[in-house]
Amino acid sequence: MGVLLAFALLVILMYKKVPILVAAPVCAALMALLSGLNVLSTLTGDYMDAMVGFIKSYFILFLICAIFGRIMDVSGAAYSIGNWLGSRLGARYAIWGVSVAAFVLTYGGVSCFVLVFAIYPIALVLFKEANISRKLIPGAIAAGAFTAPNILWGSPGLCNVIPTTYLGTTVKAAPLVSVICSIFFYLSANAYLIYENRRMQKKGECFIPTEKISKLLKESAEKKAINPVVGLVPIAVIIIVLNGFNMDVNIAMLCGVIAGYILFWKNINDKMDTLVVGAQNAIGSIMNTSTAVGIGGVAKITSTFTSLVNWVSNFSGSPLVSWAVAVTVISGACGSGSGGVALACSTLADKYLAMGVNPEILHRIASCACIVLDSLPWNGVMITTMAACDLTHKEAYKHLFMITVVLAFVNLCLCVGLGLMLY
């Protein structure tokens, strides 16, 4: 009960715009208190161990991704790619334009935490031309960035990388299942947004700019133009190094950073800015994520969590179903897809491998399952996305929920079904 009350409080605090850096330890303390644990030792011990452990494992990746995202942003490369896609698709297909741009950049290795800052100016231009409500911008970004790139063959995303550590697989695990689920997830997310846009248009909801947004639109229009094909080169470098040469994701991202500097050197007025702001973005992003992981570290030692893990991992029937439920629930409890899949794999992977279950389908199900309940209101990526788009939970979270929870669950069911048939 203490675990549930703590997460309920976290939801309330998030809706009240309390920073997760403050809300997370408060809720972790409540969880410890209601679970009969020593509050001080839990916060300074288990909470901090989980938080720092995540930072230790992934800070370098977050840092490189943030610098890469900053290079793509300030050089105008990300805007040029998005603007090119938008001009080809036209205002009528503005939602597709934003989601395609988000997909390309995310699959190319731009972190979801920094991607939104590069995509948002593009989305504003396209949505203004199409007269689409700004409330759908986070959903359009999510449709491209939070769907297929998490589960697609060869993706450098954390949800696709972390399982390799525990299952002995590669980012190319279960290719057929990966491709089918990615296509379904991406198309269904965009279909939902198109339906919502039509419904909102009938109600008279359209694009309403604020003074801040009008200024941002003007600044975007003044950015130096870059050939979009050249803009895609650093992304291609990352994909080739990661999947063609099977190099470590950190090395692949670093190669993308180097390629970006070489190609866009003249377009970056303040070179130091890419390092300074990139580092600041990395710190903010990993702190938001690690604080959520810290709550998971506290939840992990409670009797409620132990009972929950035992319950979901002992389902009768196919181990693929129990594995899917286990990863989903644990990721939801952690409030982080990357933190949840790491925790689930570290605690349960050996058990399922000992059963003789194919590690590739375990990998693919894990990458699908960890993004079903991780995006609840307190999730760091959700908070960052809405804040960057200058929208509140009340205005935008509904659409994020439909894509990253409801459709993500349907996609997980598809993945498990394909696993049962093919493995």
UniProtKB/TrEMBL annotation:
Stretches assigned to coiled coil: none
Transmembrane spans: 20-40, 60-81, 93-124, 136-153, 173-195, 225-245, 251-268, 400-422
The keyword Transmembrane helix appears for this protein: yes
InterPro entries with a match to the protein in the record: Glcn_transporter
Domain of life of the native organism: Bacteria
Keywords for this protein: Membrane, Transmembrane, Transmembrane helix
Protein name: GntP family permease
